[in-house]
Amino acid sequence: MPEPDAPTGTDRLAFSEASTGGASTAEPAPLVATQGLTTIDLHKAFGDHAVLRGVDLTVPDGAFAAVLGASGSGKTTLLRILAGFERPDRGVVAVGGAILDDDHHHLRAERRRIGYVSQEGSLFPHLTVEGNVGFGLRVREGREAAVTELLERVGLSGLERRYPHELSGGQQQRVALARALAVRPRIVLLDEPFASLDAGLRASVRADVRAAVQRSGATAVLVTHDQEEALSLADVVAVIRDGAIAQVASPRDLYESPVDPDLARFVGEANLVEGTSYGSTAETPLGWLELRDGHRPARQQVVVLVRPEQLRVTPSEGGGPGVAARVVETGFHGHDSLVSLVTEDAAASPMVARVVGGMRLEAGAQVTIKVAGKVHCWPRPPAGEAAPGAPAAEPEGEPG
Amino acid sequence: MTATGVAVEPAAAVDPMVRARRRLPPLFLLGASGAVAIALLIPLVFLLIEASGSGVGTIAHLIWRPLTATLLWNTVRLTVVVTALCAVIGTLTAWLVECTDLPGRRIWAVLLVIPFAIPDFVVSFGWASISTWVQGFQGAVLVMTLAVYPLVYLPVAASLRGADPGLEDAARSLGLGRVRTFLRVTIGQARGAILGGCVLVALVILAEYGAFEILGYQTFTTEIFTEFQISFNVSTACALSLVLVVLGCVILGAEPVGRGRGRAVRTGAQAQRALRRHRLGRATLPVHAALGVLVVLALGVPVGASAYWMFAGGVPFLTGVSLLEAGWHTALYSGLAAALATVLALPVALLAVRHSGRGGRLLERSTYLVLAMPGIVIALAISYFAERYAGGFGYQSAMLLIAAYAILFFPLALVGVRASVSHAPVALEEAARSLGRRPDEVFLRVTLPLIGPGLAAAFCLVFLACATELTATLVLVPTGVQTLATQFWAYQQNLSYGQAAPFALVIIAIAAVPSYVLARFFDRLPSRAGIAS
């Protein structure tokens, strides 16, 4: 893979001049087929415990990507390898066509031009905000102006003289981001930077972080376990599961067409219904549903994904078309409610519908449900395995 | 939520795995720590070699005689009585200062700690010089209790300050009365700190020489000193040292057993509420009086007696010169030893804090074995070995004294360095590197500024301990050289109280003020800075 006549990775990546000069030299011919960030078959184990088992990931140049995974899925390890804090056991990391890690090379963290914002912010407690943000800038000249400009960009003007302990959690995270952006990284890694913030604060910090990263032109990789955060913030979401990437897709595609039922449940609430497909439609206990993928073989046993907001619920007195059901309980969330329902069909599992606005549905109410829009489906596993949905009931199976 | 069968919360869908990211420690760190641990255990090895040189039969014979029984009885009964008294006084005073509305708490907190800084042999000198009642067992109990109760007060006060007030509220809401709440919850929370303090008190009593020599009370340590230093009876000194080290190990071993397996846990990370203080009400005045008596006995008598002898005796001019000279030697030896101990503690602390694997913890624990070795044992092991086996290398040079200090006070340095190292988490160094800084720049601009103050504090702590050390100094100080402690001792032995007094006062002065500053510094650190943290 290495080209003999190409400049070495370290030469091209040394950024002591580039960080202050700003203008990048002409892009060299790519060693790896893509722009942006690429990992190929990354493996990492700690002792006997394999954390990454072959991660293949591509993030386009300038994109805001999210790596979504449960705790223990390996997402933080992946980020630390990208940053250069850990060395992969096997595999390749490349940025903009230059190799940072492979079996023979390991570019040290300080030479990668990859910014890192940790969950705690990791601000230097002995330095002021100004000292923190300017930490990576080597030239004194223009440093103050650069710091001022960066703080303005993250909405913290006037706090230059404060020490980290005098800042709120949200302010600390903004300083950490400004500090990472100060050295003009090609990539910014964000390791659950919003996890420790209050819910109210989180939304505004998220929006500001996203805007500041976008303006800097850097590619961003956000690690999170919060599916809502990943879907709402990122251009592209990679779901990591058991140390490997399960799916990379735009937030909408990931939500609507996940690769398997487990993933469907992981990225949101899901009703899984058994049915039989006929080309572009499927026959289910909820009626005939239109399939998003219109080329199913006839009479195939399938599992259909119906998101809660696709279930339209009307009181039975209205008498519209649909399937009769009974309300089991209603979880009120203010802007909407999650309604648990059982259909007349005793064998079917309970369903969840999202109801917007002021509709009041008491437990026991008789309603009619109807599916709106197209649905996604997968071929059903051969008989003998548990019905979809049934195993998922167990984690919450304890009554009361 | 029994009906949401298909709708599973995202987090529950994937098996939560244990996050195992234990990084392997770098080899040089392991190597350096291992070397330090071995160096610390050298005196023990010397001791065993010397003992085996005398032959097992001889040693057994020397141990198996009435003298040993007398020494054992003297040492153990004093240790038990003083430890119990210190536990009560230290805990009560800590509770009064930290948990009640006692007026003038801050001043009391200072006054109660200062006696800790005054060397035990100075306290002993002060009392013995004004009263003939203060001698033997009763004198030893009085002097040692007054001199070392702060060893219980300090950790208990820190623990009570960091205690969770929610627990007391919970106990009250569960129907426990005030007294039972105090005994079962407040004291229960501080149990580890009380125990840690008691272990330190017991170890100090095992190691004390000067105070008991003045009071004419015979313990293992005084007898070892006499056999080795005056009768040159090395075999007997070795045999008795073995018994003393075993006693120390027994006391050290009691600490983890007594601590129990409970650990403080809290759900949520909300800011801690301030402790609600108990009202003393009508007890305020008697409490003031009691604390006043304690401070007068522990602080007033030693300082007052020294001042009295100094002015009553009329200080000769020569004292000033010898004071300066002795002070210089004390500062030189203590400074070098403190620097050495701090440097030695650094790799062990780094290993323990950053790579909390089983190996690192074991290594760290093993260094605490030094606590079981009193100064006299370390001194005689080093001195005898240098004389006998190293061809007199370094014998009668300051090097041996500095090495002995560094070994003796290594645990002290480790506590300080460990606390300072935990102020510089790896995450900050990684952040600095991701900002393009080379490892050497990271060390200079991030690591050093963060751990510097703590290292300086650890240095000062060891410096003070060395400056007020008497036993090992008497054995190892180069011939013809006097330190503050040895010069004081020489005058005191000659009953030249007037000449000894200025030295006592200088020792008190250089120990008390910095000790107070240091106590404030370490108070702000997490409370588990005890010996087995």
Question: How does this model look, in words?
Answer:
The complex is a heterodimer of chains A (400) and B (533). Chain A is α+β, with helices and mostly antiparallel strands and 400 residues long. Chain A folds into two domains: 9-256, Rossmann fold, CATH 3.40.50.300; 271-381, Beta Barrel (OB fold (Dihydrolipoamide Acetyltransferase, E2P)). Helix content of chain A is 21%, strand content 32%. Chain A contains ten helices and 20 strands. In chain A, a hairpin with a 1-residue loop joins strand 11 (271-279) and strand 12. In chain A, helix 5 (143-153) packs across helix 6 (169-182). Chain A starts with 8 loop residues before the first helix and ends in a 21-residue tail after the last strand. Mean pLDDT of chain A is 81; it is low at 1-31 and 386-400. Chain B has a single domain (28-259, 283-523), classed as MetI-like (MetI-like fold). Chain B is globular. Mean pLDDT of chain B is 80; it is low at 1-22, 268-272 and 525-533. Chain B starts with 9 loop residues before the first helix and ends in a 10-residue tail after the last helix. Chain B has 533 residues and is mainly α. Chain B has 25 helices and no strands. At the A-B interface, helix 3, strand 6, helix 6, helix 10 and strand 16 of A face helix 1, helix 21 and helix 22 of B.
